[in-house]
Design a protein that fits this description.
Helix content is 64%, strand content 0%. The chain has 121 residues and is an all-alpha fold. Helix 1 runs antiparallel to helix 2 and helix 2 packs antiparallel against helix 3. The chain is elongated, with a radius of gyration of 19 Å.
Length: 121
């Protein structure tokens, strides 16, 4: 199993371990996974700040009056995480999610080549 990247928080470390338990990734996809883990940690921090800004639920106002920017950043980070995870999943093929194309191919040309090989074999 690949070593856990330095500097990950709890959520990112959990995501790293659990992802490697089910996926076999190319070096390029490992880089994408590392970035996805960092984004997961960043989302955790943003969520903590947003919750603090909202107050404690007992009528005590939060520390920040306007969290619009934080919410927008959280949405952007969520979108980036979703795109990275889709890219990682796209690199998987075959009957098992733990199987990966050793060439790292997952694009249309790779799909066309795989279909042609299957038709010949």
């Amino acid at each position: 199993m690949e070593d856990e990247p330095a500097g990950l928080g709890e959520r990112g470390r959990r995501m790293w371990r659990e992802s490697l338990a089910i996926w076999s990734l190319t070096p390029a996809h490992l880089v994408l996974l590392e970035e996805a883990c960092r984004i997961a940690d960043r989302l955790e921090v943003l969520n903590t700040i947003i919750l603090r800004a909202a107050g404690d639920g007992n009528g005590d106002p939060g520390q920040f009056a306007d969290v619009t920017g934080l919410l927008a950043e959280s949405r952007q980070q969520s979108g980036a995480l979703k795109a990275l995870l889709a890219e990682i999943r796209q690199g998987q093929y075959g009957a098992s999610p733990a199987t990966v194309d050793p060439t790292g191919g997952a694009g249309v040309s790779d799909l066309t080549a795989r279909i042609a090989r299957k038709a010949q074999g």
